[in-house]
Design a protein that fits this description.
alpha/beta; seven-stranded parallel sheet; binds adenosine monophosphate; about 35% helix; Rossmann fold; 7 strands
């Protein structure tokens, strides 16, 4: 599965909740991110649903004339209310196929606030990067500190010796949605290394 680093950013995958959560800033961030992706001429790749923040980001991108690819497994068509208006909708047989396709079709990954599904998807991209299977950047969109507990856990793992100091911990952190695309463009333009100064400890958040 190893892929080279993307040379140019053409598509970004957004992982986010299939619910709205309780902080209205999350929905606003999802809408703004969808707009910014479209305005930047990037393709949005996402889970294909119409519900929660997933639906918000996709509809916002489409309303701004952006290209959107939705990838949904057949068994979730109803539960996540497949967004029928998508020009590019891929229906897979399994969740594994969905995740693999989302990975293949994207040059970078952004995690907005979400639940267990979002967490799993984002962490999986981090683990694949840590194992040298790809060099595509992963950004945690830390809107109102949503991901701070995860960042504390990562610091704890580091302090306890489970993330080795020589490991390139493969994630970037953005506090505002507006920082994300410039951050990704710079990272991709810079080439192979995806950790470096983008990796913050919790004190910096
Ligand atoms: P959630 O963050 O739980 O609201 O889920 C967000 C998205 O992640 C939805 O499209 C879910 O279908 C998807 N999802 C749920 N569980 C998993 C999983 N184990 N792996 C990957 N994606 C998942």
């Amino acid at each position: 599965m190893t892929t080279k680093s993307p040379k140019h950013l053409t598509s970004v995958c957004v992982y986010c909740g299939s619910s709205f959560g309780s902080d209205p800033a999350h929905e606003a961030a999802a809408a703004r991110l969808g707009q910014l992706i479209a305005e930047s001429g990037l393709r949005l790749v996402y889970g294909g649903g119409a519900v929660g923040l997933m639906g918000t980001v996709a509809r916002a991108a489409m309303e701004c004339g952006g290209a959107v690819t939705g990838i949904i497994p057949r068994f979730l068509e109803k539960r996540e209310v497949m967004l029928e208006t998508l020009e590019d909708l891929v229906i897979t047989q399994t969740m594994h196929e969905r995740k693999q396709l989302m990975f293949q079709k994207s040059d970078a990954f952004i995690a907005l606030p979400g639940g267990i599904g979002t967490l799993e998807e984002a962490v999986e991209m981090m683990t694949w990067a840590q194992l040298g299977q790809h060099r595509k950047p992963v950004v945690l969109a830390n809107i109102n500190g949503f991901w701070s507990p995860l960042l504390e856990l990562l610091d704890h793992m580091r302090a306890q010796g489970y993330i080795r100091p020589d490991t390139e911990v493969p994630y970037l952190i953005a506090k505002q949605v507006g920082e994300i695309i410039p951050m990704l463009e710079q990272t991709v333009a810079r080439g192979p290394s995806i950790g470096g100064e983008g990796v913050a400890s919790t004190e910096e958040l």
